[in-house]
Amino acid sequence: MRKTGELIDGRYKILRKLGEGGMSVVYLAVNEKVNKHWAIKEVKKEGVENFETVHQRLLTEADILKRLHHPNLPDIVDIIENEETFLLVMDYIEGRQLESIVQEYGPQKEETVVNWGKQLCDVLSYLHSQNPPIIYRDMKPANVMVQKDGKVVLIDFGTAREFKESQAEDTLCLGTCGYAAPEQYKGQGQSDIRTDIYCLGVTLYYLLTGHNPICKPYEIYPIRYWNTNLSSGLEMIILKCTRKNPSKRYQSCEELQQELSHYYKLDIEYQKSQKIKKLMLFCFLGLTIVSGFLSLVFYREEKELVKNAYEDCLYEAQRQRGKEQYQACYQAAITLKPKDSRAYKALLETFLWKDNEEQEELQGYSVCFFSEKEEKFIREMLGITKEGNKRNEEYLKSRKREYESFAYILGLAYFYSYNGTGNKAAAEKWLKIAGEGKPSQGLQEAEIIRAQKLWKIASYYDRLGMYHQGGDVRISYKDYWGDLTEIVKHEKKNRYKSKDLLFAYKEILSQMITSAFQFAGAGVTKAEMEKQLREIEEGLDAMKIEKGSANAVYEEEMKRNLCENLSAAHHSIEAAFEEGSGENE
């Protein structure tokens, strides 16, 4: 047992013991030099049966966590191993295990459990999106910490493994009795994404009912068997999660998360009320057809039907995982209401932030990527005609403020994210529309200014560095440098959204990597470029991604990619100003 005040590896001072398991002890420690608290998991080699297996599990846990960065996962910072012990140093998560909360306070409110469930779906989706997918395999209340702000953190990756398509079944039966899926027992097949969905379903079951399936009656009952006040929709979701046949469960955590977000719509009472409403509507419509004098009311009801169908299309699009499926839903929504900008915006946001199968090979960005196929589909949606051969873009224009707001999003997508040729030229039209717009609910003043600054660059980008017949440069790279730094200043000044500053950093950083020689030749000094690079590095270090935002995971990945490209920018600057290369120091 470590003593309070004991120093480990000359850096970590033991404060107290946090917990103890069968194989390990976890301590709270502090690095006094930086005043940072850490959790240290220690496994003593002596006296541990099958230490090599335990050792391999610890190495697996460390290897996996080192590669992952997600707000609902702890970061691992150090591995210390000597002849007697093996230690993992990781983030200290201040909070309580979900298991201990239920043990002390009993079953939790369904709204609280659904919130936890959606967060766990998000972090599991992140694990499953890795290449190859990482299967957690030991989801249970004891492995989930909840902090004071309600954020949950998934801990203990000792049983996680990378999914191997060629492997028919698991080599070890790992998991926790009561929470483990049937396929986790030897001979029952290989664990995969659906295994984690089963374990999550059992975890939600325990949090709602307080009953562990390893205790009597030794099986999962419908949750309303224990509490008739619980949602029938939530009951259906948990029963589907915990089907013995993996093919009968939800096939992805994204699908499960969508269902949890709208679980009340699955309630029997809700379904009955909807059927009654529809029956009343159909009866009313029948009377309307018979009674000509009610034609105005019929028109209003028809509009209501279109409105509801539009909302259903948007909802279904969010539930779909396949590109063809969600594109079809958005296309149906646009066909129903071509004037409404929401479907266009949601489609574009999905392309940029949610669906990133292709990657930007030169810079390694796997988020905020706008492919040529996606750009073509957007153009098709704007060009489809309804009655009267009127293009959808013309319908959209009729709502000027919504059109300007959509133009802003599309302009930024072309400028920053499009991987086809002529991205800046394609952005010019849309940035001009947004830049000439007026502040509104969908387009803030800071966004209009941003559009104007980017529009300026887009308008001359294709002529950058070209000469007049008289020999003068039309637009020099020094002018371009000035405009790029102005955009960065604008984002830092406004502190509008972290992703906008990330975009600005990405643009100027990529230009320093690819055009450092041109900047140097145009008169931009080495000191100016190095100063800008330092400011970017400091800005990234200080940047706090809003954890609860819809795109937090993707913004974290952008930030990480930018940090990785700082050295490449530095090398480009050095090369540009080597003796005989650059003109200005």
Automatic annotation (TrEMBL):
Keyword ATP-binding in record: yes
SUPFAM superfamilies in the record: Protein kinase-like (PK-like)
UniProt KW Membrane keyword: yes
Residues forming coiled coils: none
Protein residues bound to ATP: 41
A Pfam family hit: Pkinase
Enzyme class: transferase
GO MF entries: ATP binding; protein serine/threonine kinase activity
Listed EC numbers: 2.7.11.1
Key words, A-Z: ATP-binding, Kinase, Membrane, Nucleotide-binding, Transferase, Transmembrane, Transmembrane helix
All residue ranges annotated as the Protein kinase domain in the record: 12-265
Transmembrane stretches, start-end: 279-299
Protein origin, superkingdom: Bacteria
PROSITE patterns: PROTEIN_KINASE_ATP, PROTEIN_KINASE_DOM, PROTEIN_KINASE_ST
Protein name: Serine/threonine-protein kinase PrkC
Name of the gene encoding the protein in the UniProt record: prkC_2
